[in-house]
Amino acid sequence: MAYFAFYLVQLSIYIPLGGNRVPKIKWYRNIIIVFLISGFWHGASWTFIVWGAIHAFYQIFGSITKNWRSNLNKKMGLTKFRGFHDWTQKVTVFSLVTLAWIFFRADSFPKALYMLKQIVLGVPTYLHDFVVRGSFDWLGPLVFNLNFKHVLIDLGVLALSILILKIVHSFYNGGELYVKFQRKPVIFKWSVYMVFMLFILFFGMFHSEAEFIYFQF
Asked: What CA–CA distances, in Å, run from 3 to 100, 153, 214?
């Protein structure tokens, strides 16, 4: 849904505004508009708007500092270690996106700000208690309140979801798996389709009563 929303916004707004074939200041404007609307698409809360604005900031800041970061990487010699450089970029992107997800997930601004505050102040407090006092008080509720049966189920679903994503990614790129699958008999392919349908039936949410999301403003 997220990809469809962004694709729809791109077709209906970003491209008519000129996309990236406009002066850079107008391109930044287009990026801000697209990400703000994408945030609004995902939910009826200003936290989603902020989520979109953060991603717009990432895009614009990355564009402005592109040459500076490239020169810095060369001076630090990171370009000589391509694997390490790629790894640091992935970790940085993951961290920034995860940080933005706080606003996406939080029910309100106070809760989002509380999460950010705990990241900045809470973790050092736990580390101080552990290093200086040797205290594991903070670990107790985390461990003893866990339902390990649910944890195992969640890990199983997570592993299966990752496997499905890898398969979909292979199909999307027309990789070797896609070619092999297309050569399989029809009955095999339909068996795979049925497994996915059963997965949706078992894990889908069909009985929850939820108000239309855009009525929640």
From this structure: 17, 28, 19
